[in-house]
Amino acid sequence: MIVTKYSTSIEMFYAVFGEGKDLSVVQMSCRAIIVFLIAYGLIRVSGRRSFTIHTPVDNIVVILLGAILSRAVVGASPFIPVVCASLTLVLLHRIFGWFMAHNTRLGKWIESRKIILYQDAQFIEENMKKALVRKEDIMQGIRQAIHTEDLTKIDKIYIEGNGKISILIKEV
Fold first, then answer.
1. What's the pLDDT tens digit per position in 29-64?
2. What distance in Å separates the CA atoms of residue 148 and residue 144, rounded to the nearest whole number?
3. What are residue 154's DSSP bridge partners?
4. Whole-number Å distance between alpha carbons of 51 and 61
5. Strands 122-123 and 154-159
6. Which is it for the CA torsion 116, 103, 50, 74, positive or negative?
7. Residues 6+ apart with CB under 8 A from 55
8. H/E/C letters for each residue in 71-122?
9. Would you say the C-alpha torsion 134, 138, 143, 148 has a positive or negative sign?
10. How far is CA 164 from the centre of its chain?
11. Torsion sign over Cα 107, 110, 130, 61
12. Which of 58, 101, 105, 135 has its CA 20 to 30 A from that of 74?
């Protein structure tokens, strides 16, 4: 009797979630719901920086997590190993974040430093080449951030380690 209940439960599980790559729309949708909930939990474990700071390490985690979890939705890889690999990745990211927060040298080595692009009313061409940005990229950042093209209001412009442009306004 127990074997029958067990086999019936397993059959029902496979009917809802499927197995392998030949999945129906309903099975893939059920997997997507479960993977969404798992991803939400993993993001909570990973910490806020994964989706806010966008350093190279953060971007790597986001891309890999999406790629790995997608395999569970489409049935390209076994479900449990996918979840375990995702948890490992998230814990590794958390450990890296902790070490970077507690070790300044490691943080500087792993993450990029800011590069000054504009100072004393002049663009710094050498640094712009190093950062792989054009004057128009910087001007776009200015327009988006402070809604002007008037460079007389600007003291310094940096490209941050995450690739965003930061603008310091002159003090009056």
1. 989 999 999 999 988 887 766 566 667 777 888 899
2. 8
3. 169
4. 9
5. unpaired
6. positive
7. 49, 110, 111, 112, 161, 162
8. HHHHCCCCHHHHHHHHHHHHHHHHHHHHHHHHCHHHHHHHCCCCEEEEECCE
9. negative
10. 15
11. negative
12. 58
Work out whether the CA dihedral 98, 99, 103, 106 comes out positive or negative: negative
The rounded distance, in Å, linking the Cα atoms of 54 and 162 is 6
| DSSP helix/strand/coil, 136 | helix
What mean pLDDT is predicted for residues 137-162?
90
Residue (of 72, 15, 76, 74) closest to 39 by Cα position = 72
Per-residue pLDDT averaged across 145-166, rounded? Answer: 89
